[in-house]
Amino acid sequence: MSQLRSLAGALRSSSQWMRGQVGSGRRVFDPRRNCSSGAAEPSLAACSSSYVVEMYYAWLEDHKNVHESWDAYFRNAQASSSEETGEKHLSALLQGRAMSQTPAMSEKVVEDHLAVHTLIRAYQVRGHHVARLDPLGILTADLDSFVPSDLITSIDKLGSYGLEESDLDKSFQLPLTTFIGGNESTLPLREIIHRLETSYCGHTGVEFMFINNMEQCQWIRQKFETPGIMMFSDREKRTLLARLVRSTRFEDFLARKWSSEKRFGLEGCEVLIPALKMIIDKSSEAGIESVIMGMPHRGRLNVLANVVRKDLDQIFCQFDPKLEAADEGSGDVKYHLGMYHERINRETDKNITLSLMANPSHLEAVDPVVQGKTKAEQFYGGDTEGRRVMSILMHGDAAFAGQGVVYETFHLSELPSYTTHGTIHVVVNNQIGFTTDPRMARSSPYPTDVARVVNAPIFHVNADDPEAVMYVCKVAAEWRNTFNKDVVIDLVCYRRFGHNEMDEPMFTQPLMYKQIRKQEHVLKKYADKLISEGVVTLQEFEVCVSLYGNLITVSLCKHLFHSCCFPDFFKLDGEPKSMSCPSTGLNEEVLRHIGEVASSVPLKDFAIHSGLSRILRGRADMVAKRTVDWALAEYVAFGSLLKDGIHVRLSGQDVERGTFSHRHHVLHDQEVDKRFCIPMNHLWPNQALYTVCNSSLSEYGVLGFELGFAMASPNALVCWEAQFGDFQNTAQCIIDQFISAGQAKWVRHNGIVLLLPHGMEGMGPEHSSARPERFLQMSKDDPDRYPLIIFTPKSLLRLPEARSSFDEMITGTKFLRIIPDGGPASNHPEKVKRVIFCTGKVYYELAKERKQLKLEEDVAIVRLEQISPFPFDLIKAEVEKYSNAELIWCQEEHKNMGYYDYIRPRFLTVRSKNPIWYVGRDPAAAPATGNKFTHLAELKRFLDTAFNLEAFKGRSY
User: Fold this and answer.
1) Fewest Cβ atoms closer than 10 Å to its Cβ: which of 564, 891, 897, 933?
2) Domain termination site, one of 797, 825, 844
3) How far is residue 187's CA from residue 173's CA, in Å, rounded to a whole number?
4) Of 38 and 611, the one with more pLDDT
5) What's the CA gap between 346 and 531, in Å, rounded?
6) In terms of domains, do 385 and 506 share one?
7) CA–CA separation, 350 vs 216, rounded Å?
8) What's the structural domain count of the chain?
């Protein structure tokens, strides 16, 4: 029997066997031959014993005739017996000539055990499909009501395994890949089926067999198969009941008190509150000190009240009709707001910090933001393995399946510069999206299937079984702490009311809501259960309900007699600095030192590319001549901040080298794989760390991540660079919902910097415009520090004229909001006929044209380096300086794009008596032409116009 058990162990290694490659030119066995195809992946346990015999004899001829997994097995089987008898014993067994059996009997024993092993695997792989997950009892949690034929639900299906009813009371050897036996190595088939159904087909369904890691699969099997493992103590049950009371009674109170207000209550999934608290308890027990959470609006007020522990009177204040727009935190609706709170975890007596991130109605937009903030807290706290800081993300089922940013965020989960070392995802699965049935909302069987792309285990659980929910939450927290990987809890529940409390769900889901109206509340069901078990008495339960009711009453009175006062929603690492322009210059010795490091390779015996050697020599030549181009200026800016102890993080697609091969902040050894050097981290002995990291091919997810990272320290420099400025289009949600309005809506400073390559260079409509008009439309000219948008150059990166002298960067210098004309025109401003205001790349084309036309004394060109906040004071001085000149705004963008609509009314404020004329491309639908000839013709046309005033007199402005 021990040899048979070993044979079964080999048969279980199907995932490894399936991934093997067959050779050629020799007798090699196809792993799929003679195997059934009913499983999600073909199972070795379904292979016939005659095929195993054939394989064994082939192995005897030449060990390379079989897959390496079978080679290892046959070798181990020999080693388990003596050198002399091992091979003969195994051979006899596989041939069916065991000493005490006839060949037919021996083969039947093997086949029956293989059948039982296949049965066990079938439950492990697909048992979740028949689990009783829907609290309403009318739907399946997935989109397929078909019961897999290889899952035993009745005696008459035994025949599909070659088993008979008489086999139910026979004992079978259990494989090593199951824990249903506890301390027993054999069980009767009837008991095997019972224990499998208890583990995998009850109120919990487990998806994990797609994970290609044996240790992780075994860990999960042990957590769900071990007999009696899901037991709770009386104390734990009473704690769970108390938490259910708080969750349920909070919603009841709001429903009674503000019945006509939208609140997106949690009715139907009240168990979410004790679920989150269980996750936090177990995480705190494992050493977690800070938890960053993100969630949609459903249940947010309840989470704020009973998980984060926001004062109830502050929540009630949000329902006050007298709340004014000027009040802090009233820039968005109450069920979008977040909070930061540090408190004692009563289960562990440890301090824990809870942050619930504010989130708009773009439901999953907060996912990468939470991950970024989590990563930042881990980074600044030296938590390199995520042992002290973690994240929890809550989702709705329809959004989890439908929103692409969920997929983008999952793909950040194990990238070195983005991993947060495991996130616990909790899906509030209402089995409906607003009014849309699941079959119309997704193509995947479950809303959680997106998590399979990163091999995250998925625990489906019936939300009306609180103890089952608590158990999967406990396991999820332990999984995250053990393996530092994502895990998903699918809380299959229902929505007792409509999408919001004003909505009528019977319009679209009449049968579901007829059942919901009859559905007993989970609190009553669980209270009755504990009373019947003698865990609590009816009087104790009523006291618990009364105590929370008293707490609500006291908080309501406090709200009525005190004005609203909103504390800071989040902890800030220092206060953000003003946008005023102090001196930003550097000592020339520092400038030169940074330039020299940027021109060298700090590591010894480091082989760099010959082309890069030329680039470094070019940098060294610039340093010797006391000049910098854009790339070297960026190097100097970053390096000087690092010297002052300020962390710099640059993230985005291909930022390490730079899309235009100009940056080269990471050097790669040409002879040693994976050996690289970041010279900027070798500038000073005690400098801050420079993080530069290529991102996944994502804009929405990565920009959200960097925004979250910047939230942790508003004075750090956190930059996201788009590959081309146009690509910020797909991150527009983050820009609109978080970057533009974050301060006004959520009282939250953020210093994120967006670097957007911009310029009309004949590269077509997808690689030209970063859409400056959009950002200008969203700005409000506030001089304090806000997110910074920089339209970075492309062709100017290597333009000889686009360089600066050290003299413009040494001590005493500062950022220039405008760059006045420094040529002949400025010497006799009263004689200047025309002043051209512009910004960006077009200046160099204008300057070149002016020189060719010999109009340097007649035309002045003034550059706006800061568009918003608009430099009214400096523009006014320039306009007064050239008092006799006509004013022109010249841009290369089309008239309905770019800067003109923004600057025109502001110039009228400065000089109302005369207009500022527009020169540029005509209005268009596309940002740029895709035809190079047309591009050059448009450029020539507006340059001619810019230096011929008569050509545009009389035109609209």
Assistant:
1) 933
2) 797
3) 7
4) 611
5) 25
6) yes
7) 29
8) 4
Q: Is position 361 within any domain?
A: yes
Phi and psi angles of residue 64, each rounded to the nearest 5 degrees, phi first: -80, -5
Of 797, 831, 860, the position where a domain reaches its end is 797
Closest C-alpha to 839, from 892, 875, 788 = 892
The residue assigned the tokens 């019936």 is: 462
Q: Does 217 share its domain with 239?
A: no
**Domain shared by 304 and 395, yes or no:** yes
Residue 489's nearest CA partner among 363, 393, 347, 387 is 393
Instruction: Give residue 73's Cα distance to chain centre.
Output: 42
pLDDT confidence of residue 566: 52
Euclidean distance between CA atoms 609 and 102, whole angstroms? 72
Both 53 and 182 in a single domain? yes
Q: Do 627 and 803 meet the contact criterion of CB atoms below 8 Å apart? A: yes
CATH of the domain at 612: 3.40.50.12470
Q: Is residue 572 one of the residues assigned to a domain?
A: no
Question: In CATH, what number is assigned to the domain containing residue 241?
Answer: 3.40.50.970
Q: 697 with 829, same domain?
A: no
pLDDT digits (tens, 9 = 90+) for 793-822: 999 999 999 999 999 999 999 999 999 999
Q: Are 656 and 771 in a shared domain?
A: yes
Alpha helices in 381-465, H assignment, sequence order: 397-402, 404-410, 438-441
Q: How many CA atoms lie within 13 A of 169 on its CB side?
A: 1
CA–CA distance from 507 to each of 191, 434, 504 (Å)? 47, 12, 6
Tell me which residue of 525, 511, 389, 393 sits closest to 450, measured CA to CA: 393
Q: Judge whether residue 90 has pLDDT over 70.
A: no
Q: Are both 515 and 542 inside the same structural domain?
A: yes
Lowest mean pLDDT, pick from 326-330, 507-511, 534-538: 326-330
With respect to residue 582, please indicate whether it lies within any of the assigned structural domains. Answer: no
Q: What are phi and psi of 343, to 5 degrees?
A: -150, 180
Does a structural domain hold residue 533?
Answer: yes
Assess contact for 335 and 360: CB atoms under 8 A.
no
Among 902, 590, 609, smallest CA distance to 774 is for 902
Report whether the peptide linkage leading into residue 510 is cis, meaning its omega lies within 30 degrees of zero.
no
What's the CA dihedral at 29, 31, 34, 36 to 10 degrees? 180
278, 459 in Cβ contact below 8 A?
no
Token match 């800071």: residue?
568
Domain that holds residue 780: 588-797
Q: What is the pTM of this model?
A: 0.87
Query: CA quadruple 918, 923, 929, 935: dihedral positive or negative?
Result: negative
Could you say which DSSP state residue 150 is in?
T
In sequence order, what are the residues at sequence separation of 6 or more whose Cβ sits closer than 8 angstroms to the Cβ of residue 726? 765, 766, 767, 768, 769, 770, 771, 927
Q: Which residues pair with 791 in a beta bridge?
A: 756
Judged by DSSP in three states, 395 sits in strand
**What pLDDT sits at residue 100?**
46
Non-local CB neighbours of 563 within 8 Å, separated by 6+ positions: none
DSSP at 332: S
Q: Is pLDDT above 50 for 253?
A: yes
Two tokens, residue 449: 């299937």
Residue type (1 letter), 582: P
Q: Are 353 and 290 in contact (CB under 8 A)?
A: yes
Residue indicated by tokens 């609180």: 466
What band does 332 get if pLDDT is binned at 50, 70 and 90?
low
Residues 198 and 259 in one domain: no
Who contacts 570 (Cβ-Cβ below 8 Å, separation ≥6)?
Answer: 338, 339, 340, 355, 711, 748
The identity of residue 311, as a single letter, is D
List Cα–Cα distances, 381 to 283, 376, 388, 638, 712, in angstroms: 17, 8, 9, 22, 11
The mean pLDDT value for 169-187 works out to: 92
In the 3-class helix/strand/coil scheme, how is 852-880 assigned residue by residue?
Answer: HHCCCCCEEEEEECCCCCCCHHHHHHHHH
Q: What is the CATH number of the domain that holds 925?
A: 3.40.50.11610
Task: Report which listed range, 574-578, 841-845, 950-954, is most confident.
Answer: 841-845
